[in-house]
Write a structure and sequence with these properties.
Layout lengths: L1 H4 L9 H4 L3 H10 L2 H16 L7 H27 L5 H6 L11 H10 L1 H9 L3 H21 L5 H20 L7 H25 L6 H28 L6 H17 L2 H11 L2 H5 L5 H39 L1
Helix pairs in contact: 3-11, 4-10, 4-12, 5-7, 5-13, 5-14, 5-16, 7-10, 9-10, 11-12, 13-16
Amino acid sequence: YAYHGIWQIGTVNEGVWKSASVSKKIFTCFLEQGEVGVALFFMLSGFFLINKTRANLRKILVQTVLWSWFSGLISFLILFTIHGGGYTGTDFLRSFIVPINNGYWFVTVYVIICTCLPAINPFLKGISRNQYFLLLLFFFCFEYLAAPFSGSAYANISRGFFFYVLGGFFKLFVLKPETKSVRKAILFLLLAFVFIFAETVGYYFSFLEPASRVRSLLSFCVIKTSILVSSACFFIAFYNFEIKCFRGINIVAASTFGVYLLHENVFARHLFWDILFDVLHKQLPSDYYMPLAFGTICCVFACCLIIDMILQKILLKPILKKIQSIWK
């Protein structure tokens, strides 16, 4: 919401954001936790996939590609109907093939990692704890921090691999079922929110005037380190909680990835945050900005959840069965 609705390239310098109150700016910074979610996604992938030597690429590719195509094409057609011309053939291709025209989507990194599982996992499982820690340290210094700051074209791929490797480290050497503790969970949960606050402060100070290169560098390091630590703390906290499964949680969990695929396609993103809700120009200046923000987030999630559940029953299962029969 905050990143794609307000901090898109070119919008952060607009007078609407600059003239907003301090409370609104801080609240907007607090909403900017998308990178924490991405980090947790890759850490979970590493935690659950580290012992696998192969992945079900058929399901991964079909689900990601199918949902990407569906969301992108539908959003593109709606935008084309609203705005008429102004779109090129490249835009049409980009609507369902995201990497075209330098479009980045973290799902692309996820598919790359899953494809490389047969090579990555045996290597990671074959090194000692100290060697694994040194590998993480290298990734943190030269890939997680230095790569994005230097403008590396592969920064997002490096970040995905770093958190995948970190999740594998937790699985192999750190988190054990017999060490679970509610007190430990509460402690790490509190630490996570402390570093979320630190990240928020870092974002806020990075946009203060006048611009300063030193402050920008310090803010960058604070933000990136806070994202890493808060993500790790959330991961450890929820691992230590004894959460009982019930049908509602399983249904939502099964569709969460689909929710992301539906609303975060480059054209769906523009349709939701810029056209339908117009976060920057209509919601941010409003006196009811905070409840509007939470209401918008809940509305988008609920709608995409329902769409994903319907699509899984109508489209995904029959298509997977067909592909399975062809594969055999």
